[in-house]
Every structure is written in C-alpha cells, then in structure tokens.
Amino acid sequence: MDNRAPTSVRLASAHLPRLSAEYVRLSFGTWKPSGASPVGGEPEDDQQRRSAVRADGAATAARRRLPVKFRVERDVLAEAVAWAARSLPARPPVPVLAGLLLTAQDGSLALSGFDYEVSARVELEADVEEAGTVLVSGRLLNDISRNLPNRPVEISTDGMRVSVVCGSSRFTLPTLPVDEYPALPQMPTATGTVPGDVFASAVSQAAVAAGRDDTLPVLTGVRVEINGSGITLAATDRYRFAVRELLWKPEQDDINAVALVPAKTLQDIAKSLGSGDHVSIALSTGGAGEGLIGFEGAGRRTTTRLLEGEFPKFRSIFPTEFSAVAAVQTQPFLEALKRVSLVAERNTPVRLNFEQGVLTLEAGSGDDAQASERVEADLEGDDISIAFNPGYLEEGLKAIDAAYAQLSFTTPTKPALLTGKPAVDAEPDEAYQYLIMPVRLSG
C-alpha cells in the first residue's frame, strides 16, 4: 500500500491518459423545464406598470409631498438606508423607483424601497419635528449617510429640495414626486415564525444548489413547502439538489402551503433578517395576495413576488440503499479538494478513489498539470472511484456545517448523497441532504 503521508500534495510525474468528461444531469421523470415568468407576468410597458401598482389612487394621493423635519443618529440611519436601498434597481423602468421613501411621524421614521418585485420597509426611532413624506435618490442618500461624521443627522425639506445636515457637513438633494411612487404591496397574513439564526442557516444551505440560468426561472428559485410544524426548503440546478428540513411555529397547526421564492432574493432576506430573534413568514395561500410572500423581523419588513411553474418532484430521486458509505473529516477533505482543484481547469472534474482507510483525490490528465492528495477515510462497503465537479462538491462540503462528511454511493454513474455528522461513528444529520451528480469519465 502507498505509505505517503496522508496530507501530502504532489504533481504527478507520470503522464496519465487524457480523459474526457461528460456532465450528467439529474433526471426528474416527466418534469420539463418551463420558461415561466414571475407570477402575474411583467406588464407590457411602463404605463401598465404604473396603473398596476397605483390602482388605489386615494392611497397614493394621501402621500403627497409634505414638509418634513427630523433628527436621527448617524449609525442608525446609515444601516437603515443601506438595507432599504439594497434592492433598488440600477436602471429603474420609471425614475421614481430609484427613490427611497422617507415617512416621518409620531417619533418614528420609516424608509421604504420597491422595484415592482421586492419591497423593503424598515422603521426606526427618530426625533420628529415635522411629520411628512419625502422621496429622494436611494443611491445618493446611501452614499451620503454612510460617509457622514459620527454626529446626529438632521433631515428637512425646503420646497422641492431636501437638506441633510450632520455636524459641519451639509448636503442638498432634489426630491422625486411622491405622488408618482407606487404603493407597497400589503403583507399577507402572518403564517408563523422561525428562529432567525435557523432561518438564515437553512436558506443558505438550500439556496446553494439553485440554478443561475434565467432561461429556466423555475430552477432559480427555492421551493418553500410548509406542512404543519415543518418547513422543507429545496433547490436544484439539475446537477445537484439540496433539501433542508426545519421546524417552526405555525399560526395554524394544519397549515399546508407551497411557494417558489427567487433564490437570490431569499438569500438576501435571510442574511438581513437572520440576526433577529425570530423571523415571521407571511405566505398567502389564496385570494388577493396570492403570488406574494413576506418576511418580518428586527423592525424590518420585506415582500417578494413568487415564481410560477412546476418545480420538479424530487423525493423519489434521493436514494435510500447504498453499496458504499464513506465518512471523512470535513475540513481536511475540503482543504485537500481546494488544493487538488488548482490544476483542474474549468469544468474539469476531480476524481475521488475510496479504499479502506483512505481517500485519494486526483485532478488533471494527459499533458496537463496533475495533482493528487490522500486523506483518511472510513469506508463501509465496496471500493469506489467516482468524479465530481469540484465547485459543486466544495459548496456541498461547506454547506453541511459538520465535523464529518458522509458520502453514500450506489454506483459511479448515479447520484451520491452528501450529509453531515458530528463524529465518525455518529448517525448522519438527515435534516440537510445534498445530492450531487457524478461526472462520467471515458478514456
């Protein structure tokens, strides 16, 4: 047996035969990708957009420009502006959507942003001298607020302009027409709550497998399935599939609902709200609010439109019987994978050879650069050689967040199941499962 040190890395001196690789996608039976657009579709032109979001003219008229004057701490303002402005479009379809709506009243300040897909609203304490509403450039206010000196900030209106004063710093900004700004979507009725840290971790684990191909919008989302006291998050790009199950506190014990949420939006929401004690999830299960999901926590509230289309049925593709099961310490595995991948050009797989007591990672072939490294592994079952996209495997190892990674195999050409566990002899944590397709090698 090769007695090289388990952590050694070497460039292979012998020329291995050049291998060709074929990436294999997951098969979902009769499921076919659809080019579905977000629920409700996009209005055909800006005029339709305006009429769609300003159907309630009375609500819009009630927010016409009023004198505003308030004071707030710099750090509090900067954090709130950064969060509310994060989803403002760089090239808005209508100019007012580049604005941030500031509403001051009764000792509080609310900042709101909206891009027809995602809305954001945050409330904070403020010393309000004159209550009112004003609309200013969100990008400009964000740049200004995070660069102000550490002093209280006073914001006031003077006709068609807004004054921002902090210490000896003074800025004057033009306003945007408040009466043209669309009303934010109403939050659906609260469905239940989940601890903020659990929510953030679960979304991160599931969304890592979401697709990034906008021509297949259904696969760019995370499926949120609510069944009583349990939530299942699922995402796939057809080359891997991540499923995360978690518990929460529903408002109704018998609730059942499903939503397909844009993955990038859900990740942003989870990161920003996950620091709070709890996140409230508001999902419409029918009626006027259908096609919308809302999240609230730590004084922040956000909604997003849902994706439509049929998400692939996935439970049947997860194997339950295996010919080999390997357990490897996650961190040494991950570090070895990163090193060996240095010689793997784009779309070049990394080969994993599992034998009793050892895992050998290899990359490169033919006249190309080559590398290999060995790490300790506990193997039950038959020896197996299998190849994976190194990026997909690395993301899965990072996502399991466990001391040991367990890889369960059927054959070298069938999906492998990656789970985490706290110790080599412990049971795997099946609350998170990461299914990854191998790469077929020939030659």
From TrEMBL:
Residues 194-313 form the DNA polymerase III beta sliding clamp central domain. The keyword Membrane does not apply. It is found in: Cytoplasm. One of its GO terms (cellular component) is cytoplasm. GO terms for molecular function: 3'-5' exonuclease activity; DNA binding; DNA-directed DNA polymerase activity; identical protein binding. Residues 315-430 form the DNA polymerase III beta sliding clamp C-terminal domain. Residues 34-58 are annotated as: Disordered. Residues 69-185 form the DNA polymerase III beta sliding clamp N-terminal domain. SMART domains: POL3Bc. GO terms for biological process: DNA strand elongation involved in DNA replication. Keywords: Cytoplasm, DNA replication, DNA-binding, DNA-directed DNA polymerase, Nucleotidyltransferase, Transferase. Forms a ring-shaped head-to-tail homodimer around DNA which binds and tethers DNA polymerases and other proteins to the DNA. The DNA replisome complex has a single clamp-loading complex (3 tau and 1 each of delta, delta', psi and chi subunits) which binds 3 Pol III cores (1 core on the leading strand and 2 on the lagging strand) each with a beta sliding clamp dimer. Additional proteins in the replisome are other copies of gamma, psi and chi, Ssb, DNA helicase and RNA primase. NCBIfam families: dnan (TIGR00663). Belongs to the beta sliding clamp family. This is Beta sliding clamp.
